Amino acid sequence: MITLRPGKERGYAKYNWLETKHSFSFANYYDPRYMGVSELLVINDDWVSPGTGFGTHPHRDMEIISYILEGSIEHKDTMGFHSILKAGDVQVMSAGTGIRHSEYNPSKSQHLNFLQIWIQPNQLGAKPSYQQNNFGDSQGITLIVSPDGQKGSLSIRQSTRIYKLSQSDKDSSFTTVKGRTYYLHIARGSIKVNGTTVQSGDGATIKKEEILSFTEPNKVEALLFELP
Predict the structure, then answer these.
(1) N or C: which terminus of the chain has fewer CB atoms within 10 Å of its end residue's CB?
(2) For position 169, what pLDDT does the model report?
């Protein structure tokens, strides 16, 4: 069973420095049909103007994942981490007992586009942590986030796995785990999953499908979430 979440129907907000689209209810956007999927609560598609960004703000008990699509992002936090991430980089910040951080676009000319993803942890009050890695060269289906950091993935406090799907012309398939829920988010390009076309900005909740057949890819870059 595949339920499409059309990208053109996402929540939308535009400020002087930020343009953002929300796959699920977030901030001033509320739709009771889209409150997240399992422990996946937020997918925000953010465009940040040059030289601007999110000032220092707090988080607690949330697994926060940043997936950089274009441009660069400068991260600073109260754990002492200071990094500049570029396209292909993935960052995981486990907020735990509490953390404050800022996210800026350090470029004077180029916009920043990144996905901000929030996942509810299965452990509250844990020690905050930070990780990052680059997956820009990966092709096919690549594990990038997992509960145990296997195969070079980044670890989170939840039994969720995130796969990057990057295909230009080759078909592929994925064997699901019985009883798990899947969510596919298309960052750019298009592809068919079990015959259903999903395009840039679209999402799809997938249940009770033993095999996912990815066909007719058109320079697709997507994230596949395996959820409890």
Answers:
(1) N
(2) 87
